[in-house]
Design brief:
Number of strands: 5
Order of helices and strands: HEEEHHEHHEH
Length: about 170
């Protein structure tokens, strides 16, 4: 004999939307493997084929690399998070990109963004040399933030105080 239990009063029987499915972000090893830098590889055969130097107005720099063991050339780009956000594919950016960046910035950290993409397998050395920077630095996949802390030396406060007292203009250069 099966006894039916009375439902509890605090149970909510309304229809609810199904939970939002969130794609799992790659683990660090998955990320390293995707860009050809997995720890434990016997050979790290990345060679820089071309460099687009850092310029302050573009707020970024890039390199085109090639591995002897692969057919594709790869692009690695680093720069200001705000600039790389514009150059990356939207699907590769985390939903909380701006919030996470703001957290680091408010804590006084220096933040650089990293991005990557593989070039077409049809690309050869000569074609890579002719590519325009705008062609290379677009449709990138966001890899993550590099978060750095620039700590002051223990005597910095005292030295700046002495300079200020002596009416010497102080400028910090990074």
């Amino acid at each position: 004999v099966e006894v039916e239990q009375e439902p509890e009063d605090d149970v909510d029987y309304e229809m609810k939307a199904p939970p939002k499915i969130v794609e799992r972000q790659s683990s660090f090893d998955d990320l390293l493997s995707d860009v050809g830098l997995l720890n434990g590889e016997a050979v790290n055969d990345h060679g820089v084929i071309r460099e687009f130097p850092f310029t302050s107005n573009l707020q970024r720099m890039s390199v085109v690399t090639k591995r002897l063991s692969e057919k594709n050339f790869s692009v690695y780009c680093k720069g200001s998070p705000e600039m790389l956000q514009q150059l990356c594919l939207a699907k590769s950016l985390p939903d909380n990109f701006s919030q996470q960046l703001a957290i680091y910035a408010k804590q006084g950290y220096r933040v650089i963004a990293m991005a990557y993409k593989k070039l077409s397998p049809k690309m050869n050395f000569t074609k890579v040399q002719r590519l325009a920077r705008e062609t290379v630095e677009c449709d990138l996949e966001f890899l993550g933030f590099v978060v750095m802390e620039n700590r002051l030396k223990p005597d910095t406060t005292e030295v700046i105080g002495a300079l200020t007292k002596a009416e010497i203009r102080t400028i910090m250069v990074t």
